[in-house]
Amino acid sequence: MRYGLVVLAAGFTAFLSFSLLAVAIGTDYWYIIDVNKPNCSGPDDMSSHSGLWRINEGANMSSVIPSFTANMSSLSETERHLLGLHKVVVIMLPLSLVLLVFGWIFGLVSSLACSPNLLAGSASYFLFCSICTLSGVCIYIKYSNLAMEEFQRMVSPENLAHVNVSFGWSLATAWLSYSLEVATGLLLLLAARITQMKGRFDSGVAIAIFFLKHFQITGNHSPCEAKKVRIVQRFLKKENPACSETKNQNNERKEAKQ
């Protein structure tokens, strides 16, 4: 597998994961509440969709979620717990977004340097970013479920019969971003492995060429050593046919001159 293609694929998935996470953070379709109550439309529509920062109710009403500005002393223990979970979410996901920017830069430098250690470090960094994204998404799901349980305790079962709740496409976008972050880390690990194998192969070729030149200079060697020379020659012909062709052409020219 070619190193360049793997690195380009890793760069593309990293950029795409950043873009999707930015879209997820900036949109308000994480959690959707659809109220299908009869004779309830227009200004009286109670349906809503919410994001990380605000809740949009009805047609034109929106309110900011007061995670950091709420008066905690006037809230119940459950409400304080919910706001605490929401604070963690709105910190973890933007932090993951910022980390992805530095990860993309680090990955670019390590890919240009073709260093297995730097590539492995970049891969580990992206996998760490994916853990941050996964943690934020999982905490948001827990936060939404607890909020829904609290809502069910406050509303009568008759009214709940007309309420449908679901997670929106913003959450799906965040999940996709997480998957691409993991894919980026795995691709960078593959690039590090390719670079490492290429370095070992180049070292093996250099040793084989040195071995061959040494026995060509000395000239006198035992049958066992001659067998080793033939093995090295076959290895070099197999791995570098262009060089072997050039060598054969040079030998033919020498024989023609003689």
UniProtKB/TrEMBL annotation:
A Pfam short name: Claudin_2
Keywords of the record: Membrane, Transmembrane, Transmembrane helix
Stretch forming the signal peptide: none
Transmembrane stretches, start-end: 88-113, 125-143, 163-190
Localization: Membrane
Domain of life (superkingdom): Eukaryota
Main subcellular location: membrane
GO CC field: apical plasma membrane
Keyword Transmembrane included in the entry's annotation: yes
Name of protein: Transmembrane protein 235
Membrane topology: Multi-pass membrane protein
